[in-house]
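Hi P.,

Sorry for the delay on this. The queue was packed all week, but I finally got your sequence through. Input first:
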Amino acid sequence: MGFLIRLAITAVALWITTLIVPGVHVSGRTGANTVLTLIVVALIFGVVNAVLKPVIKVIGCLFYLLTLGLFALVVNALLFLLTDWIAHVLRLPFQVDGFWAAFWGAIVMAVVTWLISVVVPDRLEGR
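Then the structure:
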């Protein structure tokens, strides 16, 4: 159940990102198509972050230390661009228009995901 909640949170954060950040677009033909696209792109984004981010942190830990963590912003933008590329390969109507759109999109995604996660519990208590 926690996986589905996190996936929904990421999809909503992605939708909010498309509304706020110019250069991040999702263009489904219907509302259902747009929602499905957001869910699939959220899944891709989650897999990319789960698989590559720890590897990049280990390999690039010196850059993280030298930049006092600011390198993480660049890494997040590049992972957002990778998500765009995978979505393009899968012919999903999701597009990120360059590095700066990815940079701001990744920041908005992180903040919105965190805000929603604070409000929505990851799992049901008492089970």
